[in-house]
Amino acid sequence: MAVGVMDIEEGAASLPGKTTFQVVMCSIIAAVGGLMFGYDIGISGGVTSMDTFLLDFFPHVYEKKHRVHENNYCKFDDQLLQLFTSSLYLAGIFASFTASFLCRRFGRKPIIMSASIFFLLGAILNYFARDLGMLIGGRILLGFGIGFGNQTVPLFISEIAPPRIRGGLNIAFQLLITIGILAASFVNYLTSTMKNGWRYSLGGAAVPALILLIGSFFIHETPASLIERGKDEEGKKVLRKIRGIDNIELEFNEIKRATEISNKVKSPFKELFTKRENRPPLVCGTLLQFFQQFTGINVVMFYAPVLFQTMGSGNNASLVSTVVTNGVNALATVFAVIMVDRLGRKFFLVEGATQMMATQLTIGALLLKYLHLVGPITSHAVPLIVLILICIYVSGFAWSWGPLGWLIPSEIYQLEVRTTGYFCAVAMNMVCTFVIGQFFLSALCRFRSGLFFFFAVMNVIMGLFAIFFLPETRGVPIEDMAEQRWKKHWHWKKYFKQN
Asked: What is the pTM of this model?
């Protein structure tokens, strides 16, 4: 359902305030949580393709990788190897659940700080890992850092940002995810030929963790969190700082009204699942994260080096291809930062789904024709064409379902169920990422190129979902989302009492 420009402008203009240095600084510092997440996503695929890493922890996979007549699609099919990647996300589910409660009780800022500490400890343990137990233990600590960060950072930015630039600032989280992925691919390329280079790759995760830890001392708590916990005067003080004006009464009263409703809720999860008015954002926020993962993006982000090696590229060539892909990812996300508050959320979601569907179909067709069970692809042009297609695919994700999968769930819930509702979205992300990380290489072994056709179909479904079931949220104050959007949507309005 289209939303008029006039409606959007009125929603954005209803609350006075400037775009202040304080808001931008706090948003960028908090978004470093995305840098941690991106670094981990990017580092794991490169590390699992390194021979030195496989020799130290998975020698049987190393032997299988170098067998001349090994099935191309099954070279890396090993559950323990996949557990190295996916174990982080199991820990992340539990961590985001815990963070949803802690955020409400203690505020957003200390949870962001805790995320950096967990991630730092996980990086240190991975660097010194001597056996698989230490390796997985480090991944679990990293998972706690990711769970705390992903649960809290987008909420923090949505609550602190003015409505008119909320999308751009929140996508800074996704932008730093892409920068983290790109940095990880560079690190993997540099360390791939070093003795025990995998240690430097995994230990490098300590750098973004330290940046976030130091930066978290300089950010403000969000006004919504302060007022929700009864600190009205402190909330007003922060509002004046981040808005750059003295007249903050209108926004304060909006937050105060929402917190009064919020504080009456004793069981946020019960409220979320039993109150009909919460059904639309719960369904949409959770499905957005489900669809984000089933675009097939983590097939590329986790296993791009493995995928290129499967097509016959050498280790260095596969890592260079990954650097190129991740560079496109970062640049396309910059485009989203600039344009998302101009063109709106729905435009990017539909366009991105169409672009990804087309490229997945083409990649699947090329692999079906040229990549046989044994032996490399004989045509030198095909790996290059696949690289170009993956870059087109990644750009489509980077300006659509990547950033908007985090942005939209952070801005659609009412305050009383915001942290619990957003937990459901984050938990769905972690569950789906675990499934992809744990079973993709096994699925590739069994379904081969057909897997890309599956993801193409998923992109068709999610594009239709965006067209028919998602309201446009651009420029609307988050406390007014129900009144201005859900109650006016052709389908979701039936969940609200009609006046």
From this structure: 0.77
Q: Which two tokens stand for residue 400?
A: 């659509």
| Count of C-beta atoms within a 10 Å radius of residue 5 | 11
State which residues form the domain around 66.
5-495
Pick the closest to residue 129 from 202, 187, 38, 52 (CA basis).
202
User: Do the beta carbons of residue 233 and residue 120 sit within 8 Å?
Assistant: no
In sequence order, the 6+-apart residues with CB closer than 8 A to the CB of 260 are none
Domains of the chain: total: 1
| Residue whose C-alpha is closest to residue 318's, from 326, 329, 328, 306 | 306
Crossing angle of helices 21-48/297-310, nearest 10°?
30
| Cβ contacts of 250 within 8 Å, gap of 6 or more | 14, 15, 16
pLDDT in tens, the chain (499 residues): 333 333 333 344 456 667 788 888 999 999 999 999 999 888 887 788 788 898 888 888 788 767 645 566 676 667 777 787 778 888 998 999 999 889 988 999 999 999 999 999 999 999 999 998 999 999 999 999 999 999 999 889 988 988 788 888 888 888 898 899 889 988 988 898 888 899 999 999 999 999 999 999 999 999 999 998 999 999 999 999 988 888 888 888 888 888 888 778 778 889 999 999 999 999 999 999 999 988 988 766 655 555 666 555 555 666 677 778 888 988 999 998 889 888 889 999 999 999 999 999 998 888 788 766 665 666 677 778 888 888 999 999 999 999 899 889 988 998 888 889 988 998 898 888 888 777 777 777 777 778 889 999 999 999 999 999 999 998 888 878 888 999 999 999 999 876 5
**Which CATH number do you get for residue 49?**
1.20.1250.20
